Automatic annotation (TrEMBL):
GO terms for cellular component: bacterial nucleoid; cytoplasm; replisome. Its EC number is 5.6.2.4. It comes from Pricia antarctica. Residues 218-364 form the Helicase C-terminal domain. One of its GO terms (biological process) is DNA repair. GO terms for molecular function: 3'-5' DNA helicase activity; ATP binding; DNA binding; four-way junction helicase activity; hydrolase activity; metal ion binding. Keywords: ATP-binding, DNA-binding, Helicase, Hydrolase, Isomerase, Metal-binding, Nucleotide-binding. It catalyses: Couples ATP hydrolysis with the unwinding of duplex DNA by translocating in the 3'-5' direction. InterPro entries: DEAD/DEAH_box_helicase_dom (IPR011545), DNA_helicase_ATP-dep_RecQ (IPR004589), Helicase_ATP-bd (IPR014001), Helicase_C-like (IPR001650), P-loop_NTPase (IPR027417), RecQ_Zn-bd (IPR032284), WH-like_DNA-bd_sf (IPR036388). Signal peptide: none annotated. Gene3D superfamilies: P-loop containing nucleotide triphosphate hydrolases (3.40.50.300), Winged helix-like DNA-binding domain superfamily/Winged helix DNA-binding domain (1.10.10.10). This is ATP-dependent DNA helicase RecQ.
Length: 632
């Protein structure tokens, strides 16, 4: 006997009505029908499996690719009094057995697991014994070789069909082309599924692409003029920290968020942002999944994402409440070149994968045919230096080996050892007098790193040890003591990376199994980079039309609020004349740079710059020796 889904929705989530196709999907699941749900970011996908799971006896198995997303969803469920657990990597065998037994007998409603867990016989055996009412495959595009985030381990999801015959499966994604959707249905062996595709259109979001040489200035200008909640996406952890520091120094309250910060710190940062005590969160791309903040008014991409799927998913975190919002991408020619280099110049081919795999085994002295069950501490920088490897290419190769389950990489990769001196210089001098044995190390740190009094600075303890003529352990022990004594703030970990070998060493043969798939997927990545570059360069077609067309959705009307539409509207109005009048009036009083004029004239930046160009060509203004504009 099923509970009424609407009653479940109201009891646990506090909503009185369903949105979009949620009710249709839930009814199908309760009728034991397989479902593919294609819904935009913010469309309420998780409720499509959480509500029906709560409406009937038994539990729901949820497969998800991201530990952060799993943790967020479990946290949200627990806050609602719903029992949920995670089976992710790094759990010791004995603990895994206990968790699986708890899943069998402990009254849990949700068990979240990574796709790699499905390869373990123990996990498969326990799942067979469980009373499972629903299987949910989240981020289902990962199962498709045509998807932007293909993970071969996701193909293991089909095993759930064998383990739990008769149990319905729901696959969910916010980003899937028609080709990817067909691949999902095929790989999960759906029979007469319900395929629901809500419109991906977000009519309240104005998509904009702004070309500018000084992106920092443009970002500051935009966020100080629009002081509501926002997200700024970047590609690296260092950029997240640097940009947050820049914004704080320019009257914009910002914080940063990435995989390298601890759980407690993440919770604190997130709480401040959710409560609007922090205006802007500068983050790497995983941020936002599972986070429900409806009043984000601005999402800014400070760097070009690797594909339209990721861009649209991240941009879609703006305006979930339906109120007007902006998705802005800041770029320039240097960005385009850098993006091509990063995403295309560092795609490892089969030969390079063989080289990395060989070096990896040699580095850890693993013999041919051996399968070690150890978890190795892996100093990545030392490995790269030892074999004179390109670090970015080597890292991508490691990710591919992880993707194809040859090795497992830990979540701790690239967490940094960082310190900041918080004592004054006089206090440090006094400390050195009383702790003379520490002087060589402290002085080496101060000579090696600038700005260490002003902000958290990444340091290399091994370099410090070598320069000071002491052991690595001595440096780490001193850093802990300095933190305890109130001289520095210090965050660190013992290694860059933990690595586990998942298959016996077989050198070239190990890579040959999936070499052709790697080459094929590399080409897909090349195509996806081309597609997003085409998007940012196309300024004659409505942005929303471009995006929806990419996802196979036909839109006949322009959105009217993107930069392209605004430009078209301006060209058929008197805006340029009024802008020219404003510029001429300003230049009668003083000379200004183009940047200054953009800030002073109340109009879109592109309109102001084009008007300046028209006025130059018409001889209505001139440029002086200071590169400032003057009236004539």
């Amino acid at each position: 006997m099923h509970k009424n889904p609407k009653d479940v929705l109201e009891q646990f989530w506090g909503f009185s009505t369903f949105r979009g196709s949620q009710k249709k999907v839930i009814d199908a699941v309760l009728n034991k029908q397989d479902v593919l749900a294609l819904m935009p970011t913010g469309g309420g996908k998780s409720l499509c499996f959480q509500v029906p799971a709560m409406a009937q006896d038994g539990l729901c198995i949820v497969v998800s690719p991201l530990i952060a997303l799993i943790q967020d969803q479990i946290s949200n469920l627990k806050q609602r009094g719903i029992k949920a657990m995670a089976l992710t990597g790094g759990i010791p065998f004995n603990e895994l057995v206990t968790l699986l037994d708890n899943g069998l007998y402990g009254g849990y409603k949700f068990i979240y697991l990574s796709p790699e867990r499905l390869q373990q016989e123990l996990v498969q055996d326990k799942i067979r014994q469980m009373n499972v009412n629903l299987i949910a495959i989240d981020e289902a595009h990962c199962i498709s070789q045509w998807g932007h985030d293909f993970r071969p381990a996701y193909l293991e999801c089909a095993k759930l069909r064998e383990l739990l015959p008769g149990t319905p499966i729901i696959a969910l994604t916010a980003t899937a082309s028609n080709e990817v959707a067909a691949d999902i249905v095929d790989n999960l062996e759906f029979v007469e599924p319900l395929i629901v595709k809500d419109s991906f259109s977000r009519p309240n979001i104005g998509f904009k692409v702004t070309w500018c040489e000084d992106k920092h200035y443009r970002l500051k200008q935009y966020l100080t003029a629009n002081d509501q909640s926002g997200i700024v996406y970047v590609r690296t952890r260092k950029m997240a920290q640097d940009l947050a520091r820049f914004l704080n120094a320019n009257a914009c309250k910002a914080s940063y968020f990435h995989g390298g910060i601890g759980k407690k710190e993440k919770q604190e940062k997130l709480k401040l942002w959710l409560n609007n005590q922090t205006q802007v969160m500068v983050a790497t791309n995983a941020f936002g999944m599972g986070v429900d903040k409806p009043d984000v008014r601005t999402v800014i991409h400070f760097q070009i994402p690797d594909c339209l799927e990721n861009y649209y998913q991240e941009a879609g975190r703006a305006g979930r409440d339906g109120s007007p919002a902006i998705a802005l991408l800041l770029t320039n020619d240097f960005d385009v070149a850098q993006m091509k280099q990063q995403f295309l110049g560092a795609l490892p081919n089969a030969d390079f994968l063989k080289k990395i795999y060989n070096k990896l085994n040699n580095y850890f002295q693993i013999s041919f045919g051996e399968l070690s069950d150890k978890i190795y501490q892996f100093p990545f920088r030392d490995f790269v230096a030892a074999y004179s490897l390109n670090s970015f290419l080597a890292y991508n190769a490691l990710r591919v080996l992880d993707q194809y389950s040859v090795i497992a990489l830990s979540e701790s990769f690239f967490k940094k050892t960082e310190i900041q001196f918080i004592a004054s210089q006089s206090q440090i001098f006094e400390y050195l007098e009383n702790n003379s044995g520490s002087a060589p190390i402290i002085q080496t740190i101060l000579r090696t790193y600038g700005g260490i009094f002003d902000f958290e600075t990444k340091i290399d303890p091994i370099l410090i040890a070598n320069k000071s003529g002491v052991s690595d352990r001595r440096v780490f022990d001193l850093l802990k003591k300095l933190q305890k004594d109130g001289i520095i703030e210090y965050t660190s970990q013992k290694t860059d990376l933990e690595i586990t070998f998942l298959v016996p060493r077989d050198d070239d043969r190990t890579i040959n199994v999936f070499a052709k798939k790697v080459e094929k997927h590399n080409q897909i990545k090349v195509d996806k980079v081309d597609q997003i570059l085409k998007y940012i360069h196309t300024d004659s077609v409505c942005r929303s039309k471009q995006i929806l067309n990419y996802f196979g959705e036909v839109k006949t009307e322009d959105c009217g609020i993107c930069d392209v539409c605004k430009q078209k509207q301006a060209s058929y109005s008197n805006d340029y004349q009024s802008i020219a009048t404003s510029i001429a009036s300003l230049l009668k009083q003083n000379s200004y740079t183009s940047r200054a004029l953009v800030g002073l004239v109340k109009a879109e930046e592109t309109q102001v710059l084009q008007t300046i160009q028209f006025m130059l060509e018409a001889g209505q203004l001139k440029i002086n020796t200071k590169n400032e504009y003057e009236g004539i």
